[in-house]
Structures are given as C-alpha cells and as structure tokens.
C-alpha cells in the first residue's frame, strides 16, 4: 500500500508511471511495459547511446523525488530500478523500498547492499535519506560510465568488470 501511495502521487517524465493496482489474489502494480528494459540491459544492447544522458535523466527523477514535501527517498537506486521508456528516456521505478522523509524513523528495508551508503551499514538501524540516495547515485555513475558492476562484501563496496 505504501508503494501505491507514493507512486501514484508522482508526476515526472523521469519517474515511471503507475497505471493501476490489483490486490487480489496477491498485490500487483500495473505500469507501462518498457520494451527497452532496464538501464543495464539497455546499455548492454545499445552501447552507442549516451550513458551521460541516461544518468542526467535519472538525476532529474531523483531530484524530483527529493523536492517533494516531504522529500521521498528511493532507497534502492541501481540500474535494474531504472527503466528506459519508449522515448528512450530513463525513468526511476520500484518504489517498494521508498520512504517518505517524515517516516524515516520507522524500521524498514534499505535496499540492496551494492549501492548502499556506508552509514546504512552502521549499528542502530540507520535510515535511508536523500544523502544516501545521492551516494547510491554516485555508485551508479561510476558503474555506468566505466562499464562496471557494483559488488558489496560486508560493508565494503567494490566495482568490477
């Protein structure tokens, strides 16, 4: 329900839109099909396209999330959560882990560790923030620009070919 609430109130060209929700027999979100797939698939199949353009589009979507009142933290920035739409624009998706900034005191998932900010590994169950999203975006930039894969080992981050 939280994902539906967050996603339905968003309206930006770099946020993948939700079309509907089905709760029975199990919860499913309904959105447009993206023929080009996610960012990792798209860049693998289309190496001639501008990686920087896709990163700029992603940053615009992230800035839009953080500009909401209260700010929205995506909390799981990674190539697999960025879809490439029919206009070949990058659009953030998968808001299942997103948290409204005012809810950051609530325990909850933090996303996959590969792009996670180091402070989120600390004891005391620290919460995702716009700053931790920016850290994850920095890892995304490194991975996309240098054709690397992010790998997390404990609380150490590595990027490998």
Automatic annotation (TrEMBL):
It comes from the Eukaryota. SMART domains: S_TKc (SM00220). The keyword RNA-binding does not apply. One of its GO terms (molecular function) is protein kinase activity. Residues 1-161 form the Protein kinase domain. InterPro entries: Kinase-like_dom_sf (IPR011009), Prot_kinase_dom (IPR000719). GO terms for cellular component: plasma membrane. Keywords: ATP-binding, Nucleotide-binding. Gene3D superfamilies: Transferase(Phosphotransferase) domain 1. The keyword Transmembrane does not apply. PANTHER family: OS01G0253100 PROTEIN (PTHR27001), OS11G0664100 PROTEIN (PTHR27001:SF931). This is Protein kinase domain-containing protein. It comes from Tulasnella calospora MUT 4182.
């Amino acid at each position: 329900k939280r994902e539906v609430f967050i996603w339905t109130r968003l309206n930006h060209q770099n946020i993948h839109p939700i079309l509907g929700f089905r709760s029975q027999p199990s919860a499913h979100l309904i959105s447009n099909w993206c023929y080009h797939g996610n960012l990792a698939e798209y860049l693998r199949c289309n190496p001639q396209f501008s990686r920087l353009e896709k990163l700029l589009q992603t940053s615009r979507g992230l800035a839009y999330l953080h500009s909401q009142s209260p700010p929205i933290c995506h909390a799981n920035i990674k190539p697999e959560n960025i879809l490439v739409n029919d206009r070949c624009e990058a659009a953030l998706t998968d808001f299942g882990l997103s948290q409204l900034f005012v809810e950051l005191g609530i325990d909850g998932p933090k996303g996959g560790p590969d792009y996670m900010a180091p402070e989120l590994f600390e004891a005391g169950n620290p919460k995702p923030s716009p700053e931790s999203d920016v850290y994850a975006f920095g890892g995304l930039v490194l991975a996309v620009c240098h054709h690397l894969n992010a790998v997390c080992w404990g609380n150490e981050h590595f990027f490998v070919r």
